[in-house]
Amino acid sequence: MRPVRTSCFLVLWAGLALSCTEPGPASPSAAPARALDAGRSSAAEPASVAVPAPTTQAAAPSETPSAPAAAWTRMRGAAPEPRACVVTAQGLSRAGAARAVLGQDGMLVLPEGEARFEWWSEAGAQGARKLSELALASVPKRAAVSALGEARFVVWVDERAQLQLVSWAGGEFGAPRVLAEGVDRRFTPALGAQGGLLLLAFTRSVGEAMHVMLARVEGQRSSVEDLTPPGHGASAPTFVAGTAPLSLVMVDAHAGVSPLLELPFDASGHVQPAIVRTPVSQPYAPPALAAARLSARRTVVAFTAIGRVAATAIGLVPLESAEAPVALVPSEGYGELALAVAHQPELAVFAVEAFRGSAKDAARKVLVGVVDAAGPGALLALGLEDASASAPSLRANAQRGEFSLAYATPKGIQRVELACRP
Fold first, then answer.
1. Residue pLDDT, tens place only, 93-130
2. Residue 370: what pLDDT?
3. Which of 61, 187, 365, 408 is paired with 25 by a 20 to 30 Å CA distance?
């Protein structure tokens, strides 16, 4: 396990003064995150956007890798207001039940319930094209994509609780490698590249506690170490968007007050001692995190939490300072919520799931918007014309202010191009 150093402060949380000097298991009776339910949010009410049907209906994926899948509908003249995003183009990129993970120059597709991957390119006005697919030994549960040099890498946890890695280069997948077993399938692994290494953080149970482990991959060599500091548990690791060198955030989750933990990396990919950061209240089980560096002095973390009447919320807190949480999604429905983040210099965009009502198994929508030092800007609601919209994946593009979003609907994977403004 890793050493730990403490960032000491008091934080006023739901009317309680809490110290993070010596964090430990909190009482199950700790106060819920009431701050997340003090009104809708500091953000503007989400704008309801019905994305029109594309001009060309998407066909089912073709067995011919070069066959086009869909066309774009473009919104001419769309320009965002300050601290907001607008849709500039959209289309049904791949028909059929599936989830997508956006990569640097393509899209990984996980067909629902199937033991295979697909890799799709992006072909401008022609939408997307399936380039290749990979048959797997078991169904992938959660996956992440990153780049190292000219190659793209996919890491995933499968239904057998194995952590696996595969490369994609030159239009083809490589051979999958098993890096670890006994992985917690509820958490998406975090994947980053630093100092010529691939760094894969994942959650595993050790005894009765959850621990965060790190797999280092250099060529064909790999090793695994436990990043969990002594006296803590850890889960839900995520790399902070916009940091160089990399920094990893995770949570020591309890049924009450739960500190966030930060592990910085140096330029060669070696992890530094863990730092105890802001405590959050009543994280959802299993928790989910997404984090972004807004400036040299401010990093924000979005987290899933339990709010009023045990409903699920998504809160937003600064990593290094003591401030009350802001609600990205006030507590309303019940169940897990997914979240994603992408970053450009001085511009962070979050995409999150939200419920459309308070009933059990209520349909979902996707909210997307800018987050800055003042908190969330106006949130754009997407997927309202579909029966449900979920599993957002977000990517920052090369052009300033441009982002790509993919999310799952019953019809298939919807791709949206966004223009966002600080």
1. 999 999 999 998 899 999 999 999 999 987 555 568 89
2. 98
3. 187
Which residues are CB-contacts of 314 (< 8 A; sequence separation ≥ 6)?
302, 303, 304, 305, 327, 328, 329, 337, 339, 352, 354
Give me 248's structure tokens: 């990893």
Cα angle 381, 410, 184; round to 5: 85
Buried b (16+ CB within 10 A) or exposed e, 183-192: bbbbbbbbbb
Note the pLDDT tens digit of each residue in 336-351.
999 999 999 999 999 9
Of the candidates 20, 33, 26, the residue with the CA atom closest to the CA atom of residue 281: 33
Residue 274 has pLDDT above 80, yes or no: yes
For residues 191 and 79, the model is more confident at 191
